[in-house]
Amino acid sequence: MSEADDAVDDADDAPVRACPAYLISPSSAVSPAAPVERALANLRRAGFAPVLDRAALRIRQRFAGSDEQRAGAFARAAAQDASLVMITRGGYGLTRILPLLDYRSLARARKRWVGLSDFTAFQLAMLAKARAVTWSGPALLDDFSAERFEDIDQTTLGTFQDAMSGALEIVGFRYAGPKDVEARGTLWGGNLSIVCALLATPWFPRIDGGILFIEDVNEHPYRIERMLTQLLHSGVLDRQSALLVGHVNRYRLAEHDRGFDLQCVIRWLRKQTKTPILTGLPFGHASPKLTLPHGAEVALGTEGRTCYLILDEHHHH
Amino acid sequence: MSEADDAVDDADDAPVRACPAYLISPSSAVSPAAPVERALANLRRAGFAPVLDRAALRIRQRFAGSDEQRAGAFARAAAQDASLVMITRGGYGLTRILPLLDYRSLARARKRWVGLSDFTAFQLAMLAKARAVTWSGPALLDDFSAERFEDIDQTTLGTFQDAMSGALEIVGFRYAGPKDVEARGTLWGGNLSIVCALLATPWFPRIDGGILFIEDVNEHPYRIERMLTQLLHSGVLDRQSALLVGHVNRYRLAEHDRGFDLQCVIRWLRKQTKTPILTGLPFGHASPKLTLPHGAEVALGTEGRTCYLILDEHHHH
């Protein structure tokens, strides 16, 4: 608690019923030019009372502070009062501090940890080491930076609000893939590069019969394929009851690809595994972005071109 | 043998004592604009008699033919007479055909398989599945494409010729790192992205006390660090008696790196492991490029700023 007292309290003008949200920067540095104030204002207007961790705006080379400072932010977040902990942004920096975190202690704090991208490393580690549920969802600068509050994606905002208030019970989205899929298992995954970067390490969770979801950004389809191939060859993919593919974007196809694209990757992968592969999950480095309980038991079903995820709120807090 | 008969015989004008070399394309397609003829002529002048596998110039999207065609090239290479098998180029495509290859049968053919980059996947698999020695060395288009034969890097060419004739017993290079390092173990590794892409799969060899070498291209230092961190956290790095860092190049640092660079990565990594880390190995996507026996027992020693690798030729053929 004493450390959290040093935090910049940004919640003075928040509405009375606002949900306190503690913000940490566990990965890359927040640029001095980033619209932090605007994003905080939008977050307030959305019904949250954001508090910046004292190290959230630190800069050390490309990182948001030293390894110890970034690891310390998790302990401070666990010790302060807000039950919601968000990240300012992703980037890079979490994998190298994984050995510095005490996952059982962080899980005992019973926070709602929310984030994505590089944050996937923390989420996988929390699942592997403490069987803890975290939330795959928005980040401050990625999702709340719009100049006008009205320009914030309404699906992203709505499911985030619902998830954080415990009201999110089901999400549905238009998908492509096999018909009549039914599955039930642990929902897990996130950024594909990070999922693969943890393979063979102590922070990769062993999940059988799970519903694995992936997304990625700035990765050419051949790299996506190489990573999915690693999940295939390591046996992870065959052990899942479904694979959900989210946004894969911001890459550039080249002339020498000669038609090779993400569709080819998915088509090839479907021939290699019996695990049903469903594309179209609204999650990743784009809008809309669902907020999903990472590590929770969920049920998956399809009806026509719609895929539903039924979230059992009682499995997590 | 019958399949190899279909190969384009390109060795008609080779000198009598020329070393026959069979060329395959197991990964990306050779561009129709690539200077294949010039590279073959240079290879001939260097004392080799190159023969192109019948599928070496196939193009299927970004690949040099279908998975089956590229896998078939290995069987054809094993069945033909030349003891030296080279690749036209690397790129991408080997990881997805790893399950299609019969490593014991390929090892029994007792060829000198030479290559690098994506070829690392085959080399690691040969080591994991057949304890077979292969060669980390040049590729046709990467190293023999010079307009003038005289412009081919003399160290690259000389050590390749020596290695292929069985005369390469020791290599030395200027290095940076800890003094007075002495080690002995299995020399293994190659392209870092590929080494990490095989972690947790059946084709990743279990090597204790080895001398691991890595190189990479087009990967930002933060990605190099993330991959080395995976080798660290998976226990692979601590199990080695030395890590040799080759060429890491063709990346661009950004303003927001604020001084973070490859030196920072090496410095950070040295604090995380007791395994001595030596930089300066002439291997990777640049010249000079040594030809090294992948999977062979070697001895490593340093004298002043020079690192030596003593290759025990009798350990392999």
Give an overview of the whole structure.
Helix content of chain A is 27%, strand content 22%. With 317 residues, chain A is of the alpha/beta class. In chain A, the strands form 2 sheets. Chain A has a 7-stranded mixed β-sheet with strand order 6-13-12-7-8-9-10. In chain A, helix 9 links the parallel strand 9 (242-249) and strand 10. The first copy, chain A, starts with 18 loop residues before the first strand and ends in a 6-residue tail after the last strand. Chain A binds chain B through residues 28-29, 31, 59, 61-63, 92, 95-96, 98-99, 196-204, 222, 225-227, 229-230, 233-234, 236, 256-260, 264, 268, and chain B through 28-29, 31, 59, 61-63, 92, 95-96, 98-99, 196-204, 222, 225-227, 229-230, 233-234, 236, 256-260, 264, 268.
Give a brief rundown of this model.
The structure is a homodimer of 317-residue chains. Chain A is of the alpha/beta class. The first copy, chain A, has nine helices and 13 strands.
